Hints:
48% helix, ten-stranded mixed sheet
Amino acid sequence: xxxxxxxxxxxRISSPADAAQAVRRAMRLAPFAGGDGAVxxxxxxxxxxxxxxxxDAELLRLLQSGIASAAARGAGRLSMMAVSRAWDDxxxxxxxxxxxxxxxxxxxxxxxxxxxxxxxxxxxxxxRGAFERLLVMDAALAPVPGAPEQLAQAARLSPDGLARGMVxxxxxxxxxxxxxxxxxxxxLSPVREAIAHALAHEGQALTAEGPVLLERRAFSAAGAGSxxxxxxxxxxxxxxxxxxxxxERLLEQERRAQARALSPLSAPGDWAAPRVLSALLPxxxxxxxxxxxxxxxxLLALAAAVVPEGYALAHPxxxxxxxxxxxxxxxxxxxxxxxxxxxxxxxxRVFRIELPAGAFSPRTCSLFGAALLVLSxxxxxxxxxxxxxxxxxxxxxxxxxxxxxxxxxxxxxxxAEQEELLSLARTAFLRLPSDRGAQPEPAPMRMLAACxxxxxxxxxxxxxxxxxxxxxxxxxxASSAAxxxxxxVCAQYLRERMAxxxxxxxxxxxxxxxxxxxxxxxxxxSPLGLLLRAARSPLSAxxxxxxxxxxxxxxxxxxxxxxxxxxQGSALEPLARPHxxxxxxxxxxxxxxxxxxxxFLALACVSLGxxxxxxxxxxxxxxxxxxLLALAxxxxxxxxxxR
Length: 643
């Protein structure tokens, strides 16, 4: 029996873009399975009114052709299985339940998987007894180099033969408030957050909430659906989200978690009661607050607002998450009510109650806040606690917007400010000099300016690509991190817009990436100390981000940088402090001739929502370094962060 690992990557496919992205991510995860390992992409089709939908054929064709082309390019042992839909009484629809640990374990044990496959590129029988370990993870995660080995070591020492890694938010600057809360283990359920935080201090973690590695002795338990609720947390083993978690997905994820917790199909265990409690708690809190307002009971209102957050009150680092939960109680409670009604009326053919999607939104919180404010005025005895809660509910839309706003600029830009920045960016592009004389700007930065002009709608993609091509070959070595990042951003942007360009320009993205590869030393580590150095060699987190004084200002366009990298009055001030920049006189906004290009790039970056960092994270050459960059920029939470 070989000491190999099967990396089971789960992905939900709802569009052709999802199918292509899932195959691409699975292909890039192949090196983490090792030379003798393999990657199995487990795909779940979207819920539908029938078992087979007309659009399924196109999705399955894209998946199969993507796997075949990846195998032809030598991407390692990569295969795919698409799980068929089955009727679900609770959802009253054909759903595609995907339990990767259970499904993969049964396949490795040679047992019946319990599901049918709409498509598969590997014979299920060929997986029997072929692997010693199973690493289960979502396709939206990327492991830090060395993570599978550390997980395997922790799983060997575990009595149950399994271990879980930690998940960090996607790297990026400016960092959002939601990303900060994620690092603290934020959850819309105070019960789950308290359990996860307490287990983290004990070196444990919830099994179902992250990537898990199973030893062979754990396959039987996983196949039977009886894995323990907790497992060891592998210290120093990190996985990173490939994309940021939008704030609007918070309530949708919580609603699905409540539906799973209230389902009788949930696996029994020691944590069954907390799961049900976390699902019903927001509904109980909402009803208690409304009852306290109607009857004028201040103690009941205070208990409903404070008692469920007792653990957060004892740990001040969790207080921001408690405030967010309190502000979103109405929308969260309606999600719990919807899940409960679905469960109670699942088998009824007469009654069917389904709340509209608009009920799970911050606007719902505002409506409940206005009603609670009126009731709190009527019941004067409970006025003090209820008025505070009602004001938080009224401000829920603003808080919801702030969750996805930069943490260093806590006030989101208004529509008028956004339009002003866009106008300033377009004006700055038109004022860019075409010839800088004896000291021209670096060619990569001028390429980036051409692509930014296309993002602003001032250039057609074909014209932007021709301007980039005109600067090749590079007159100088792209020796700095900013220049190399600019080349990768241009390559990725043009690759994604190549359908709008002339066919003769199609080799251009590859030529830009080859220029970056040519600048990297073949055997020694590049001295950049930033993203591209991490792509070459797995380094420790302390080596990735240099001292702020040693970093080039242009790096702030692409990488997580401290505020000191963008001092007040510099060309990058629009990127670091847009509100301060907008109140300056007009002559200061235009800047001088010396930093015209850098100021334009900063204006384009902030007015377009940091597109350079997003493009860089999607670059095939830079993507392997993003987990290391996240590890460097985000301190771990829980037990590891207290050291």
